[in-house]
Specification:
The chain is an alpha/beta fold. 39% of the residues lie in helices and 15% in strands. The chain binds ligand NAX and potassium ion (K).
Amino acid sequence: MRHAHEVGKVREAEQALMAALPEGELMRRAARGLAAVCAPIPPRAYGSRVVLLVGSGDNGGDTLFAGAWLARRGAGVEAILAGSKTHEQGLRALRAAGGRVTADEAVIDAADLVIDGLVGIGGHGGLREPYARLAERTAASAAVVVACDVPSGVDASTGEVEGVAITADVTVTFGTYKPGLFVDPGARYAGVVELIDIGLGPRLPEPDVVAPHSEDIRPPRPSPESDKYRRGVLGLIAGSEQFTGAAVLAAGGAVRGGAGMVRFASVRPAVDLVRQRWPETVTTVLEAGDVADVGSLVGRVQAWVVGPGIGTDERAEALVAAALGSDLPVLVDADGLTVLARRRDLLRRTAPTVLTPHAGELARLIGADREAIEARRLEHVREAAAELSAIVLLKGSTTLVAQTGRPVHVNPTGTPWLATAGTGDVLSGLTGAFLASGMPPLDAATAGAYLHGLAARFAVAPHDRPGEGQAPISAYDVITALPRAFRTLSGDTTWAGPG
Ligand SMILES: NC(=O)C1=CN([C@@H]2O[C@H](COP(=O)(O)OP(=O)(O)OC[C@H]3O[C@@H](n4cnc5c(N)ncnc54)[C@H](O)[C@@H]3O)[C@@H](O)[C@H]2O)[C@@H](O)CC1
Ligand SMILES: [K+]
């Protein structure tokens, strides 16, 4: 996992470390790391035109020291001192190395490399002038942009962006990742993120946010003793007279997600379609009076998925209530979430509940504003997990998974092409398969989001050849690409199953 810490924790750890080190050593480490990332950027240090955007804090100090290092290696370095004051030792070092100070902002236009040292973890709110103007001018230049610690204008702890921010090609961050580099909108401004070890590790507490690597994703794999029941039986309640497609897609996600068996229950037209496409499923036709007894009609399962395409009427409500009335893990998605928005009492249960809303569905569930959720995804997903006593997977650009008392998991895979009808149904079936296997729900949701996003990337660009473009995908293409996504996970890191 890549660990990210909020600003307060970074500062505490830095203070403790600083007290144990010679003065200026931490900044030297940070600046050296920043310069080392910048040096190989074409046309490489010697003879390149480097512009430093220097703010009034230590972020500017790091940038001046890194600029001095590049100047000593032959770069032409010019610093725009934009703050009300300037880090003195840093400025001295730059001048001693042959760097210059300039008031001419036009140097940005012709630069090969711009290093953004306006604000780092000390930033608050939208960029003030002249920083905002400099950020805009930088965006218009053809220079490679490297942000020092965080792109100025991005809130390091939350990823919020108020107004203008630096759009970086690379962000060189120190000691630990910052949540704002992982979570949109901030993540979109960060580019490639490079972490520089400045010795902070041992002094850092539990992370606030984590982003899994491939080896952290451990969906269950069958052992020689496995049979279909031990691998996990998923009960899936999806589809209605009007919406049959959602059922087929959710069933596909579950089948390709490795469920030992999928028991599917719905109205006749949805059952017919699911049987045609996924004859592997065991199906139950629900007649009008059957909904309350769906549990006993379907038979033994280890987890439920309820919601895709079920509609939002009384019948749908009874289906959601029946699933949540069980003492099994339940994933509620799509129409099921709309039902829950008016029946939050159904969430009072002891077994785990996983909710998979997009921002609009979450807005209805917690009575918030959709735009506010998009702007402050981290805050809202945490709030929702606490308020709804559930594991909440907030879909969208940078999918987040929150469980109270645990770091928020941020999904590193995915593609904007996923924003198409039906892909969410695939995700709920896939995650349901993991829940049925007995995987802890936070891990199940994290693995679901990861593999779903990876499969989508494979579907969008199947050959991943340089210069080859991307194509729109259907939800069905994501199902088809799931086996390939699974095969990228190394076999020997498999989650061993429940005890
Ligand atoms: N604390 C440490 O031990 C270390 C800090 N380092 C660097 O120090 C940085 C933090 O330095 P500081 O605490 O001095 O803070 P910053 O340099 O991030 O920013 C503080 C300054 O920016 C101004 N500012 C804040 N928000 C603004 C906005 N929206 N528009 C315009 N101006 C704004 C403040 O008034 C203040 O003058 C880190 O990001 C990192 O780059 C590194 O050198 C590593 C060691
Ligand atoms: K910065």
